[in-house]
Each structure stands twice: as structure tokens, then as C-alpha cells.
Amino acid sequence: MSSVPVEPRTLLAQWVREQGWTLDDFRHRYADAAQRIGARADTVSERQAKRWFAGTVDRPHPSASAVLEALCQRPIGDLMSPPRMAGTTSGSPTADEPVFAGGHRGETPSPVFPFGPPEHSAGNDADETLRFLARAEQAPAPEMVALLWVQVQQFARSYGDRLSAHVEEMIVTRRAAFRLLDGPAEPRQAREIYLLAGLVCAMLAHASRDLGDTRQAIIYQDAGLLCAERSGHLGLRVVVRTEQAATAYWMKDFTRSIHYTDLAALDAERVRGSIAVLPFVQQARAYAAIGDTSRSRHALTRSHRIRDHVEPDDLDDIGGLMRFSLPEQLGIIAGTAAWYPDPTESERAAHDAVTAYQDAPYIDRSHNSEAIARADLAIARVRLHALDGAEDALRSVLSIPESHRVLPIRKGVQRVRALLHADPFYRSAPEGRRLRKAADEFACSSESSQELRAVGNDAAAEHLPD
Question: The pTM is what?
């Protein structure tokens, strides 16, 4: 029978020892508490419980955190903090005993980053700085909240080309926001911090999906939705629901994608900003993917009508990922039309999207989205047997470095490749064989890169909160 560590490294482990429980006792009590409050995280594995006791996670998933708080009657921030020293009433370290980034005394834990940045990085030091600022006062200082707003805006505006490169910094910001929520705050200020945390979780979900880690994207989406509920911000709810719809779409779960767009559309009815348009173009794309062209066109009509009545809001002020620009709308319309029966219509929509990205001001440019639209353009031209045009559309996409080939780009080239292999026309024409070979090489190198990234993600998952 497993037991709790003799020397507890968290207040949670210390509390469980004080109850005289074994590890199995704790797991049973956890399940009872989960059932009592109706939590989704209703069980905990032995391995996960040991990670909580050892303090190798920053904090558990929100659902598991709620169960632990109900079981122990303590805030989750306290439970994950170092244990109390003998003769003290708080978890504060002694003067000669430093606390490192993971919260353990006397040792430096592994960094908690899902995409494997270097062990010694600027992010670690930034994390320590934010930790110091977050704990400098009992209540969140306005300067700290203002700093988080600056970072959220910077991340949002890096969307399109660099968002996935900022995962490490976004995790630092997410952890800082969550720590602020562990402490006391006025209701208005707490709602603002939940909004900030939810925006960061939404961007982490987006970046995780781009990097091919849909499992992790779903975790961040769940956390973002919880933050949206507690912030009371309808726009954030739309942002998170559309992230859920996009993840389901790229996982080819088109029916679930439609379900999420339906939920997002309900909230979008009370949102005036540009993000209100997004659920309807996503819905159009998902309906097109299952062959329901009629409903797809109806959803596009609604998106155009809503676009005509957009009034910029606070999310539009943030910009980037939080502002749904017209080029982005045309890009998803191109992805929608790529499923339509008429390849001429598909080509026209994709060409409009590519042109819009090329002509857009810098703030609305997205090389990733333009590459996705170019793949849609190539799909249409392959269907039209316009080989030169298909090769021209795909040329810049195939030259994208492996590290920048986000999931939607890889999926687009895979569809081009499938069409080239399925059509006998391309087995005989020399130009067709050349394009097929180039698509094959892109796919093989992308798959190898993705496998290496997956290995790194699996290893890093040992340090991720549930």
C-alpha cells in the first residue's frame, strides 16, 4: 500500500499526513469530495497524486483544484505551497532557506514549460520577477495588473506569425495571473484578472493547436472558459468557444465544431465587436466540411450581415488575435469554399483571401493565414487541372521552414497531396509528378518534425498541471 512521502514538499502532502491517510485513502477521499460537489475531475491516479504531493506541478487543473479545496478546506494556492515549518503558522521560508521557482526549499525544480524551452532561459528569471511582484502585496497592485495588460496585448498582436514562439512567456504570464487570483482581491479587480487569465489561456490554446498538441489546447480551452465565466465577459466566452470550434475542426470532428459555433453564436448576439462575426464563418466552414452547402451559405450570409454592424469594443482595442479582421474573415471563407462542389467558386474565394492579405495594412497581415489561403487556392486549381497555377500558389507554402509549419498549414498541404495522388491525371503529367513529389517531401519532413515535437511535449507533460 502506497504512503505519503515522509518529508512532504507541499502543504497538501503535509495535511494528508496529519490526517493519518495513506495514498489510497487520499484517492478515495478525493473521489468522495468530487462526487459531493459534482466535479468533472472525479478521480485521481496514484501517479498524479504523487506529483501534487511532490510539488512538481504549478497547480492542478481548475476542476481538480475545486475538489482539493473542497476536501482540504484551503485555497489551492496554499495547498500547492511549501509545507509549514515546525513551530510556524505559515508557509513562509526561513531567512536562510531560499524558495525557487517551483516552490520547493533547498532544490531547483524542472521548469514547467509544455514545449521544451531551454532549461536555463530568460523565462525562468521573468517568472521569478513576476512571482516577486505578485507577492509584494497582499492585494494585486494596479501596476501588476497594468503589466499583465501590456503583455496580453503584445501576445495578441504577435498572432499570425509569432504567437507560438511566445509560449514560454505566455505561461509565465498565465502563472502570474493565477497567483494573483490565489490572493484577496475586490470583486471588480478579480473579474479583471480572470479576464486577463482567460485571454492568455485562449492564446495558449491557439498556440498549442498550431504546434499540433490538440490535447493541451483542450486543457487551456477549459481553463479559459472557466475564467470567462468568472469574469462575466461575453466577448471572452466567444473567443474561447471559437477556439474550441477551431480545435474540433482541425481534428476533423466537424459535428462538434458546429456545436461549439452554436454556443459561441448565442453569446455573439450580445457582442458588438468584430469577434461576433467569427462563430458564423467557422460554422459555415464546418457545415461545408460535412457537405451541407445550404446551411454553410446561410451562415456566411449571417456573417456578412453582422460584419456590417460591427462596433469596435475592448477586444478590438487589444488587436491581433482578439480582433477579427476582414482578411481573416475572407481566409476562413476560402477554407469554406474549398469544400464546395464548384472548384471555380473555390478558386475565386481563395484568390480574394490571398489578395486581401497581400493588400492589408501591417496590423492585419498574417503570413500563416495567407499560407493557409494559398493552400486552399492550390486545392481549387488542382481540382481544375490548372497545374501551373497550383504550383504557383503552393510554391511559397512549400518553402516555409519546418519550425513555422503550423497545423492548419500542414493540413492544407495534406489535402493538396491527397488530391494529387487520387487523380490519374497527375500520374501522367510531368508537372503533376513534380508537384506531387514536392508535396510528398513537405509532408514527410513535417511529420518528422511533428514526431520530434511530440516526444518533447510528452516529456514536458510530466511537469504540466492537470
Answer: 0.68
